[in-house]
Amino acid sequence: MHTAGKVLLIIGGIITALGIVMIVGGAASAGLNPDSENVWEGTSGDFTIPDDDIYGVYIKGSASDCDAIGGSTSISITSPGGEEKFEKSCEFNEEDDYLDDDFQRVGSIEWWNTNAGDQVSIQSNVKIYIVGDIDALGNAAGGFLAAAGGVLIAICGGVILLIGLILALTLKTKDPVMMQQGQMMGGQMMAGQMPMQQMPAQQMQMPAQQTPAQTTAQPFEYEQK
């Protein structure tokens, strides 16, 4: 497999995994589950309002359970002076909203008639869950954006994976050229032997070339008269 293909496959896999994690985490926080995101739960007791958020009241059940409040279902949230602070409201219950399908929003604590730090007394014949609606809505919006971003990141990672796969299948790594040691040594030996083979012929010819020309001395004869 070509090195470029390996690198792109690794990078694409990491980016895709990161996108999937963001999708799962974002989807989990995009929905509201009062069972785990409440500031108070129970059937009776005192509740101190933490801040200026709008605090919704939720129960486990269907829309018919919300309509039953005031009849078979009784929920009362009062101030220390006995003033009722619970406002029934069932119009926000929809099957496709961000609220967990096991829960229904049945109303809220009157936010315009309470302040942070006020204490109220709760009495109910069903278990209720009090949730800060503005904070929960912000978390849901952030989760939705995180999930959307995760989808885009996963798509980018998938594209990189595809490119890496194509390169891995089409590009081939060139094998290094290996020279046999015996051939190299044989070539070197032959190259080293060639001058030695020629040396005797040259040495045999050198005396013939260097022999100086000899002259024959002719004797002089003197004739006596």
Taking the alpha carbons of the first and last residues, their distance comes to 116 Å
Number of helices: 4
Number of strands: 6
List the secondary-structure elements in sequence, H or E: HEEHEEEEHH
Largest sheet: 6 strands, antiparallel
Shape: elongated
**DSSP helix fraction:** 40-55%
- Secondary structure class reads alpha+beta
**pLDDT averaged over residues:** 75
The value of Rg in angstroms is 50 Å
Number of domains: 2
What amount of the residues lies in strands? 15-25%
**Which parts are unreliable, with pLDDT below 50 for 5 consecutive residues or more?**
208-212
Short description:
The chain has 225 residues and is of the alpha+beta class. Helices cover 45% and strands 19% of the residues.
Structure explained in plain terms:
With 225 residues, the chain is an alpha+beta fold. The protein has two domains: 3-29 and 141-170; 32-139, no CATH class. 45% of the residues lie in helices and 19% in strands. The chain has four helices and six strands; from the N terminus they run H-E-E-H-E-E-E-E-H-H. It has helices at residues 3-30, 63-67, 133-170, 181-210; strands spanning 40-48, 55-60, 75-78, 86-88, 103-109, 119-132. Strands 1, 2, 3, 4, 5 and 6 form a six-stranded antiparallel sheet that branches. The longest helix is centred in the C-terminal third of the chain and has 38 residues, at 133-170. The N and C termini lie far apart (116 Å). 18% of the residues are buried. Mean pLDDT is 75; it is low at 208-212.
